[in-house]
Amino acid sequence: MAFLVPFDGTYLAEAALMRASEYGEALEEDVIALTVVPDHEGYAIDVGWYETREDEPFSVPYVAAKLREGVDDIAPGATFRHEQIDDRTPAAIANRIKQTAEEIRPSVVFLGTDNVGEIAEPITSVAGGVAENATYDVHIVRYYAPPSIPEVRLEDGSYRGIDEP
Fold this sequence. Notes:
Elements: E1 2-6, H1 11-27, E2 30-38, H2 41-46, H3 60-74, E3 79-85, H4 90-104, E4 108-112, H5 126-131, E5 137-141, E6 151-153, E7 159-161
Parallel strand pairs: 1-2, 1-4, 2-3, 4-5
Antiparallel strand pairs: 6-7
């Protein structure tokens, strides 16, 4: 089994990758970061993946390499994979993620998204399109830092603060 993380370099995708990496280490699961890169220079510029340069013309492998650096910084043990598509719509990106998930068969897909309220709108949301698939669990990451847990209930019914031994 594995954990799959669609990764586009946004801070919530970074948070999802970090969370998947932590869970993966604790549960001894592989983590796969997946980047779907539309073959459109304008799209890559709009999302901040690429700036027009004479010394480095736009190419999907160039963009993927830049995103891979981000993955390696956050989760050095994660496997990086990129997929190239021609269509730059959220639905097309979501479809490629779902196709890849069908191939990988992850136990959980970690999605970093702040539009959880709109997740039922798969036409306008990549996350919504990915979350609608029922063949895997979905872990939605809405915050960069996980919420703090002040105390944990022990088996004997007592409580212990997280920082206490």
